[in-house]
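Recap from last week: sequence in, structure out.
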Amino acid sequence: QLVGPGEVFGYSSLVLNCPSSTSAQTVQRTRLMQWERMRALELIQSIPRTTFNLFRIAVRDVVYFNDRARLLQTQSVSHRVEWAVAEVARKAGTKEAGSNVVGDGVGQREIADLAGTTIFTVSRELSRLQREGILRKEGRRIFVLQAGKLYH
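Predicted structure tokens:
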């Protein structure tokens, strides 16, 4: 799962009282805020709205993972790659000249991992999308020109 700016991850250890099974890798210079478990639990108890917000985040993540599992099991590789490109552009992309730009540490390996395929398949699918005018590849960067035409 890609986590964008301001998003929460690794919260399962609050409830399960075990070391977090979450790991993260940044794709660009990042600032991260970490809460100690007891401090976070104090916050949750003192501000009831925090419990609701955390529940909402957890439900959102469950829906995301269910949707992703369904996508990986039922969709063609071309749809999965299109979805992964759209997901990376939305979460880790930047805006530049009217396009969402994927680059700066996010490459074909990350797209392949999200789509459940190989970098060779991703390369082939990106070339197809470029021929169709949906995106443009420039070195290690991908300019998404028509995001609405990607599977989502």
